[in-house]
Structure formats: structure tokens, C-alpha cells
Specification:
alpha/beta; 3-stranded antiparallel beta sheet; about 35% helix; single chain; 3 domains; about 300 residues; 5-stranded parallel beta sheet; Alpha-Beta Plaits; Rossmann fold
């Protein structure tokens, strides 16, 4: 007979990416049948109930730990492992200092390791501050957070464009950069196809189809489901196209999204026509690559 335990911890916030890692680690332990470590949002509470857990009232500010195991001993070990993982903190060494201290800002980490890709996963109202901090440090940014005001998204992408950087998201749940899957990413083989995706589930489906056809991906750049809306104007899509075009490993670029704003879709197609050879899958028309000012041949679907 299975044994289950559910606890909530009031006011104990942890970012969702970290909690997914903890859930996966705990769920892989011997004797564990199901595990969910997450903030107690309505979506996660519904998920816990769908997994067969009985969850009492909780709020989005509470940390939820729900584990089911084959016996009490396995359950105790799993909870201990979850607690250990939640207590762990990333450490960086301050410049010129002898002691290791917790990293407190994106900029302090970038100062230590140099500009890289910053993954932002904090409550939506606070994501703008952290993402702007990353841009100020010279980092490209993946905003995993949702519930980010659209005005903040536009501002972030405008600043990134001015500095030659890339903002993926907000609500970017799937990406592959440098062969590393970020968020909800499938493990697929490397290959020549680069994806610019305003639909995370669409990106995952295409990744799987390509992998099944023995064709890998060079990168998957999620731009957020609102990027091709009238408000955002395709800013992230254009920046992601430029990034993939500069990548020698990318031979074919695929742009996919939820239904875009018609005027924004026309703007993206016009950009593609002016700078890339491309095939519009919504139309059999093919634009001759020889008419486009290109430094090398590239195909964009």
C-alpha cells in the first residue's frame, strides 16, 4: 500500500526552475511513486490533485511538497532529500574576497563569471528588475516568469535591441542554447535546424518530429507567446532570427507561433524577404534567395 504526505510552508518562496529540479531529483529516488515540489499556485494545486494527492487550502505564497512512496521509510528519505535540496544555495566568490557568499544579484554573478545567458524565474511583477539587471551586466536573458506586464516586455526587448542582446520570453518555457535544454525541453540530437518559437508546445512538438526523423536542432529560441502580438510587435522574433543567422551551425531557420497579429506577421515576412531567402508555409510562394542581400546562403521556413 502506498504512503503519501503533503506539507505546505507559508511564505517560503523558491523559483520554479529550481523546484522542477528538486521534484525530478526526489521523484527519481528509490521507492518514490510521485513527487511534486512547487509553489502552491492554482495550477500546481490542480496538478497535485490530478496526481492523487489530497491538498488542503494553500496560497501561491506557500511552498508545496507532495510525495507518495511505497513505504514510510522511502517517504521519510524522500522528504529528507527534498529538504536538503531546498536548503542548498548557489555560492559565488566575491572578487578579491576569500570567503564564499551567496549570490544576491544577477549583476554580481555576471561580474564573477562574465556575461552569459541569465535565466530569470521570479514572480512576474519582479521579473523586469532582474532581467534589466542582467541586460545591464551584458547578458542575454531568458525570462521563464509569466505574469509580466506587456509594457515591461516591450521595454526589455527595446533595451536588448539597442545593446545587441537577446530577450527570450517572458513566459519562455522551452529553449535549447549551446546544446543545453532550458525549462521544459526535450533531449534531442544536435543538427542544422534552428527554431524561433512563440509557442512552447509547438517548439517541443517540432523538436520531437525532427529528432524522430534523425534531424537535430542547433538551437531553440523561445520568444514568448505575446511576441507576435500587436503590442510587442515581433521584437523578440526579429532578434532571434538575427542570432540564428549569425550561427554557423544553423542551416535552416523555422519560425512558429500561435496565431500572430496580421500586421506583425506581415512585418516579419517583409523582414525575412529583405534579409533572408524563405518559404512561407502559409503560401506556396518562394522568394528567390539570389534577390536577398546575404553574406551566405540560409533558408528560413
Amino acid at each position: 500500500m502506498s504512503h503519501a504526505r503533503v506539507t505546505t510552508r507559508s511564505g517560503a518562496y523558491a523559483d520554479s526552475v529550481r523546484l522542477m529540479q528538486v521534484s525530478q531529483l526526489v521523484g527519481s529516488a528509490d521507492g518514490v511513486e510521485a513527487a511534486l515540489v512547487a509553489m502552491a499556485t492554482d495550477v500546481n494545486l490542480d496538478l497535485a490533485r490530478d496526481m492523487g494527492f489530497t491538498v488542503s487550502d494553500a496560497t501561491a505564497d506557500d511552498l508545496l511538497i507532495a510525495i507518495r512512496a511505497t513505504d514510510e521509510a522511502a517517504l521519510d528519505i524522500a522528504f529528507e532529500r527534498a529538504e536538503q535540496q531546498l536548503a542548498a544555495r548557489p555560492l559565488v566568490r566575491e572578487a578579491g574576497g576569500a570567503d564564499e557568499v551567496p549570490a544576491r544579484t544577477v549583476r554580481s554573478v555576471a561580474r564573477h563569471v562574465g556575461p552569459a545567458l541569465a535565466l530569470i524565474s521570479v514572480p512576474g511583477p519582479h521579473a523586469f528588475t532582474e532581467a534589466m539587471d542582467a541586460l545591464d551586466a551584458g547578458c542575454d536573458v531568458l525570462v521563464f516568469s509569466d505574469n509580466v506586464p506587456v509594457a515591461d516586455e516591450v521595454r526589455l526587448k527595446e533595451v536588448a535591441a539597442q545593446r545587441g542582446l537577446l530577450v527570450m520570453g517572458p513566459d519562455c518555457g522551452t529553449a535549447v542554447v549551446g546544446g543545453i535544454g532550458l525549462g521544459f525541453a526535450n533531449v534531442v540530437q544536435p543538427g542544422p535546424v534552428g527554431l524561433v518559437a512563440a509557442s512552447g508546445t509547438g517548439a517541443q512538438q517540432l523538436m520531437c518530429l525532427l529528432d524522430a526523423a534523425d534531424i537535430g536542432v542547433s538551437a531553440v529560441l523561445g520568444v514568448g507567446g505575446r511576441d507576435l502580438s500587436a503590442d510587442v510587435g515581433g521584437r523578440g522574433t526579429i532578434a532571434a532570427l538575427d542570432a540564428l543567422d549569425a550561427d554557423p551551425a544553423t542551416e535552416l531557420i523555422v519560425v512558429l507561433s500561435k496565431p500572430p497579429d496580421p500586421s506583425v506577421a506581415d512585418r516579419v515576412r517583409a523582414t525575412l524577404a529583405n534579409h533572408y531567402g524563405f518559404l512561407d508555409v502559409r503560401s506556396p510562394r518562394h522568394i528567390d534567395r539570389r534577390q536577398a542581400p546575404r553574406h551566405r546562403e540560409r533558408r528560413t521556413a
